[in-house]
Design a protein that fits this description.
The protein has 48 residues and is of the alpha+beta class. The chain has one helix at residues 3-7, and strands at residues 17-21, 27-28, 43-47. A 3-stranded antiparallel sheet has the order 2-1-3, with no helix packed on it. Bound molecules: zinc ion. Zinc ion binds at residues 21, 23-24, 26, 35, 37-38, 40.
């Protein structure tokens, strides 16, 4: 299962929210509190 499919797992419609580390740009899971790559807790939230 891909990330987009995972995010669209319910009936919320076409909106997808993506979480990304502001420091290094790693894509993170929705419940991530810090980046798994660099440890930054600055998580950007994008609604696509
Ligand atoms: Zn990072």
């Amino acid at each position: 299962m891909g990330l987009l499919e995972l995010l669209r797992g319910d009936t919320a419609g076409p909106t997808v929210t993506q979480y990304e580390c502001r420091n290094c740009g790693t894509t993170l899971s929705p419940n991530a509190e810090e980046c798994s790559t660099c440890g930054s807790n600055e998580i950007a939230e994008y609604t696509l």
